[in-house]
Amino acid sequence: LLAGSALTSAMSRGCASGANEAKRKQAAEGARRELPHDHPLPGAHEDVARHLARGNSRKEAARFYLEAADAARASYQTQLAKRCYRRVIALVSEGDMRLLEAHEALE
Questions:
Q1: DSSP letters along 8-34, please?
Q2: Closest Cα to residue 44, out of 88, 92, 12?
C-alpha cells in the first residue's frame, strides 16, 4: 500500500506536468487502486482527485475530492477540507446531491 508522498511520487512518475489527459487519468487510476477506502487519507485522495480532474474525469474527481474533504474535516484539517469542498462544487453539475453536501459543509 502506498501512502502520502509515495503515492504522490508514483503519480508524478506516471505523468509529467505537461502530460495529456489520458496519461493523467491512467496515473490516477493506478494510484486509486492503492488507496485505503476504509480510512481515506485526505492528501492522497486529493492528489488522485486532482489527476482525475486534469484527465477530464470530473465525476470520479468529485468523488475523491469529497472523500478527501470529509476525511480532512474529520481530522480537523480545515483548510484542506475547504479547498476540497470548493473543488467538488466546481466539478459537479446542478442537481447533483454532492453539490448540496459540499455547500452545507462549508457553512
A1: HHHHHHH--TT--HHHHHHHHHHHHTT
A2: 12
